[in-house]
Amino acid sequence: MAKPYPYFVSLNEAISLCQKTQINLDSEIIPISQSINRVVSNNIHSKVNDPGFDNSAMDGFAVIHSDTLTPPTQLSIIGSTMAGSSTIQEITSGQAVRIMTGAPIPEGADSIIPIEDCTVAGSEVTLNKPSKPHFIRKLGENFSLDEIIFTPGEIMSPEKISLCAAAGISTISVFKKLRIAVISTGDELRSLGEDLEYGQIYESNSYGLSALVEIYGHEVTRFPNVIDDLDILRETLNEASKNHDCIITSGGVSMGDKDYVRILMEQEGDIRFWRVKMRPGSPPLFGLWNDKPLFGLPGNPVSSHVVFRAIVGKWLTSLTNSKDINTKYTHAILDEDIKTQEGFTTFRRVELFNKDSSTFARLKGHQGSGNIAGVAMSDGLTVIEPDQLGRKGDVCKIILL
Ligand code: AMP
Ligand code: MG
User: Fold this and answer.
1) How many Å lie between the centroid of ligand 2 and the Cα of residue 146?
2) 7-25+176-318 has CATH 3.40.190.150 classification
């Protein structure tokens, strides 16, 4: 019997089915010093011109360019000016002012000669080369008063935080963080610090998934492990849905008899798709539990990471119309054939190396989806599209890890 929801969809279909469920994020005003990774929610206008005045890009002398065209040129030094100086100096032909980087340009000067190209003797300077007009940083050449420096969706980086400060902006409006619950399921899982009995393993997915939520700029609650029990799982999802915007589960979505996340979602939730044509990571489901988006990630550690990056990260950035800056791509030539399956997107763990001024990718470690060491130690994941074969010599897109 056909499933009452899309079953075994392509990765692109999975991404677009998730994106049909959107959450409107409220805004809040925060200091720029706390804004790393936060997403801008309003246009941000500069409060100043940058630079605010013509100033020197070099330590040297401010001079009149036409004086300096046939070196060596001797000029008399009539003063000096430093960054922060507010006295306006003036020069005429035959004169020079000693100037430091960032100092305002004296009136009459139209160029700078770096100190390295000068010989100073008392109050005279000999210029051994012509001066350089482009060593003057012009008023407003970087950005100007009232100019929009950021539009909504921009993700704050260290450079953007400095730009805000340079523009005189101390607080910005950003989207509020989503509160995301991360819930691991499985009878075999034990928490760190507990003793392992035969058949048990340390629960590890929730740590990496929580770190992923954080690098995407959201707030995470790591729930205690849930055993494979329908009633306890229902109770935990109900609890999580009360004060979280979104739920991420790990484990229990495959074909096993105790895969209760899938079973509960089928019986009482609202599944929007189950299973995706991707390797690794084919079991995930997406749906709503108490109207809250729920990503049911596979328990296999590599799969849970890959599915987060391939699907959940795309959904999170779609909410704020942002670039997925956490997924950086490169391209590399495959150094060996990679096993693919027609119609599937293939994410193999690779290491990158350079040879003959090209970048190559070769498989790194045992490729089993249970091998977290393989993904942790690799340089990247191949993105072999459903219509590609992944043959030695092919140029392949790689997600950098
Ligand atoms: P499942 O998706 O529940 O069938 O689990 C698939 C595999 O992933 C099994 O070998 C589990 O033991 C393992 N696994 C499930 N959840 C976790 C977890 N939170 N941390 C580490 N391994 C897990
Ligand atoms: Mg399980």
Assistant:
1) 55
2) no
pLDDT in tens, 47-65: 999 999 999 999 999 999 9
The fold adopted by the segment(s) 328-400 is Beta-clip (2.40.340)
Q: For 224-255, what is each residue's pLDDT tens digit?
A: 999 999 999 999 999 999 999 999 999 999 99
| Domain 28-48+146-175: which CATH number of 3.30.420.40, 3.90.105.10, 3.50.50.60, 2.160.10.10 | 3.90.105.10
CA–CA dist 48, 28 (Å, integer): 24
- Taking a C-beta distance cutoff of 8 angstroms, is the pair 149, 46 a contact? yes
CB of 397 within 8 A of CB of 329? Answer: yes
Domain spans in the chain, listed from the N-terminal domain onward: 7-25+176-318, 28-48+146-175, 55-137, 328-400
- Residue 381 CA, ligand 1 centroid: distance in Å: 21
- Nearest ligand to the C-alpha of residue 188? 1
Residue type, 242: K
Question: 201 in ligand 1 pocket by Cβ < 6 Å?
Answer: yes
Residues 66-91 have pLDDT tens digits of 999 999 999 999 999 999 999 889 99
Residue 121 has pLDDT above 80, yes or no: yes
Give the ligand with the smallest distance to the CA of 255. 1
pTM for this entry: 0.91
Q: Which residues have CB under 8 Å from 392's CB, separation 6+?
A: 334, 335, 336, 337
- Ligand 1, atom nearest to 253 Cα: 2
